[in-house]
Structure formats: C-alpha cells, structure tokens
Amino acid sequence: MKKRVLGLMMTAALAMGLFAGCGPADTGADPAATTDTATESSDSSAPAASNGKRVAVAMPTQSSERWINDGSNMKEKLEALGYEVDLQYAEDDVQAQVSQIENMIAAGADCLVIAAVDSSALVNVEEQAKEAGIPIIAYDRLLMDTDAVSYYATFDNKGVGTAIGKYIEESKDLANTDETYTIEFFMGSPDDNNAVMLYNGLMEVLQPYLDDGTLVCKSGRTSFDDTCILRWSQETAQQNCENYLTGFYADEKLDICATAFDGFAYGCKAALEGAGYAVGEDWPLITGQDAELMATKNIIAGSQTMSIYKDTRLLADKCVTMVQAVLEGSEPEINDTEQYNNGKITVPSYLCTPVAVDKDNYKEIIVDGGYYTEEQLAE
C-alpha cells in the first residue's frame, strides 16, 4: 500500500494552469469561465491504470442536496479512471462516520477522501489511516488537529462570506444610504472550520456598518458564538428566526436575514411566512449558500434573494486529480499553502472560486452552465 504523500514543500509552478473557474478569492470571476471549465476539466482527465486501487469517500449527510451531488460526481469521475470507489454517508452521525472510516481502513482503502461531520472526532481514526500508510484528502471541510491529512480541496470559504457581505452591501447601497436596516445572522456549525472563515469574510464587509448604525441587529447576536448553528440545522435556523421575530420585531420589520446556507434560508422563509411577511411587500433580503435546486427556485420566486453558487463538478474534478496524483506518487496542483492551518500543520490546498447568483444572473451562470435545466427549475 502506498505511503502517504505529503506536499508541504510546494513550488510556484504548482499554481500554474489553474482551472478557469477556480482560484484564489476573486468573487468577480467570469461566470462563463467558471461553468465552462466543468466540461473542459472532465474531458482532459485521461483514464489511467488504477491497478485495482480502492478510493474510500466518506461524506457527511444526504440531507443536503449538495452532498449528494458531491458524492455522485466524485464517484463517477473516480470510476471513469478505473478506481474502485467505496462511497458512504454518515447522515450527520459522528460515531457512524468514525465506524465507516474504520471499516474503510480495514477493507484496504488506498486513499481516503473525507468530508467530516465533526473533524475533532476523527483524530484517532485518521491516525490509524496514517499508520496504515493511507493518504487522506480533506474535502470541503478542513480536518482539524491532525498531521495525517495530505491535501485539502475546497472553495474559498472566506471568499464565500465576503461575497455574501458584498452582495448585502451593494443591494442596500450601505456605503451611501441614509437609511437604517435591521439584520439578523444565521451562521454555520461551530465544528466546521469553513463556518468560521465564512463568518470572518462576512464581517470584514458588514462590521463597519454595524459600528456606524447603518445596520442594526436588534437581538444583539452578532458574534460567531452567538449566531452559529450546530450541524447546519435548518430546524434550528427556523426556530432562531421565529424567536427573533417574536422577541424583537413585533413593531419593526426585519430587513435582512444574513444566512450562511440555503437550508437556513428555507428555515427563515418558513418563520417569516408564519409571522405574516409576504413576498413583494415586506419580504427581507435573504442570503444563502450552495445554490441548491430549491434555493434557485426560491430565488426565481422571490422568497430568497441570492445564494453562493459552488459548482461541485469543479470541486470533484480537483479532488479526483489530487487522489490520482497521490496514488501515482506525484504532487497535485495547489494554489494555497498559507490559509488552512488545522492546529497541527498548514494543509496544502486548492481553492475554487464561489460566485453570487440572484434573479438577474442565475440563467447565465446556472442554466447556461448546465448545472440545472430550465425544466428542472420549472418543476
């Protein structure tokens, strides 16, 4: 079984030839370049002899559409290269994921791809993989407090928060307005490093407007600790929003729901409808992330304002090239060796670029890019 390949000494040459739709935080990237790359990168991946090698893919849950897409995309691409693929979902059960990974190791996996439910619970099983010589690639959620991880494939998570913040800033013209807007925050899971980075990117944009009173959070809950939602729970987001509306907005309308995930947007939508808000009348600006099919339909209908489009086909492509490089004894393409310190090491990473989508540009980015069809969106 191949020994784990570490890529801690990366040269500048590794940053050349990046996907057109992926790269360091540039949320103004050309949408056409982003979507066209999915076909280009798939076509350029020539099948290689897998020598019967097995790739085990541990995904967190099937409760979110994006993880289903991630898993199926990766499985398809790995199998096209001739690898045997063991894809399993833990349904947000921490111990279930630990057991799954233990079984993957025992079954003779040659490489592990892990999107963690709670990475703090995986430290011991990751050490088992390291001792067995099995390389680990973290997928879209950084594996914390371990030196067993070789690489990390993700989107620019701070850039996601920045894009959400800038969308709010520009939509409400915060830099120039004399108006005051009320806002409440619904941030990601405290056991997911991505959630913290997203929050940091968001607040870099919005904190000045909270400080000068342009934005007012009547609940006073603006810190990450006060706004994070364990396991990205839609139900908790709805309950929080209901509590805010009842406790703080009986006499004044809520203008902005700054949410970090489409599931949170669904929860806020349900809470707002229950409180009597109506689309087209007093409906607030609602943000999201992942551009799920339902979220895109809601954007078209006006009950969600925007989402962050993250083409999981591109992310799967990038992770597959990492797997292939590791198993062939070479070094994968990397474009970040500084941001993702997991408490033990700084993990060499590849960051794809997120893109904000709304009613004005979803056709160009999502439909023309082949992510969803008009028929799917009309169902």
Automatic annotation (TrEMBL):
PROSITE patterns per the UniProt record, alphabetical: PROKAR_LIPOPROTEIN (PS51257)
Keyword Repeat applies: no
InterPro entries: Bact_Solute-Bind_Prot2, ChvE-like, Peripla_BP_I, SBP_2_dom
GO cellular component, as recorded: outer membrane-bounded periplasmic space
SUPFAM superfamilies: Periplasmic binding protein-like I (SSF53822)
Signal peptide per UniProt: 1-20
Subcellular localization, as worded in the UniProt entry: Cell envelope
CDD domains reported in the protein's UniProt record: PBP1_ChvE
Region (Disordered): 28-62
Amino acid composition bias (Low complexity), ranges on this chain: 28-50
Superkingdom in the source lineage: Bacteria
Keywords: Signal, Sugar transport, Transport
Keyword Ribosomal protein: no
One Pfam family from the record: Peripla_BP_4
Entry's Gene Ontology molecular function annotations: carbohydrate binding
Residues covered by the Periplasmic binding protein domain: 55-330
Protein's name in the database: Putative multiple sugar transport system substrate-binding protein
